[in-house]
Each structure stands twice: as structure tokens, then as C-alpha cells.
Specification:
Number of helices: 5
Distance between the termini: 70 Å
Radius of gyration: 26 Å
Structural class: mainly alpha
Strand content: 5-15%
Amino acid sequence: MSDHEQWTISELAEQLGLSARSIRFYEEKGLLRPARTAGGHRVYGRRERARLRLILRGKRFGYSLEQIAEMIGMADVDMDEADQIAKSLEYGEKKLRELAARRREIDAMEADLLAVRQKMLSRLAQLPAKPDDKPAK
């Protein structure tokens, strides 16, 4: 069916590396509203494909589905472009702060693990060598 304007759910799923079930899930959550054929089959256009890409990007950045829904919904409400950009920047700044905090936590855990590792290696070097249980061949 692909004429570069409309896609079936399986075509869109393949394009974006998703399962059809994932796409239906996003539809159930109200993030997508595909058109339907007379036979009831879903038909996805450019708008739905763009929304799916935004959903995937939002997930990759660690946003919740609620946050993604709000960001996607900004285009559907009477919000001017400057307000949309400001709101998106607000989300981005918050996410950057969260990532910086996580990075500090990971750095601290890594430093702790390296210190413990060094203590273990030092202690291991102080222990007498174990006699080999097996005779040499």
C-alpha cells in the first residue's frame, strides 16, 4: 500500500523497527489516531509517522508516556510556536538535570567500586601463594 503518503501498520512498523503491537499500544494510549479504511484497517499518514518518531525519541530520552503525550499534544492545542518551544525547552532542561544527577551517582559508584577493587587486589597480593592442587604435567 505504501505510496509514501500512507502506510499500513505492518509497513510503518517495519520502517520504524517496531512491532505492530507497539503501534496499537500507542494508539490505545491516545498518542496516535490513524485513519481507517472502509474495511476498518488502520492507515497511517505522514502525521502519524512523525508522531511515532517523536514518541520513540521521547522514549530514548527517558520521558514518560504522559510527558510524551503532553509534548505531542502541544501541536494539537492553541499554543503558539514560541510557547511550544519554551515548553519543550523546559522538558529538555529538566531531563538534562536528571541526567547530570545520574552521572554523578554513577561516577560515585564507580569510584567506590574501584576503591574496593584496589583494596581486594592489595589484600590478595599479601596472602601467601596457594599450593597447586594438581601435579604439573
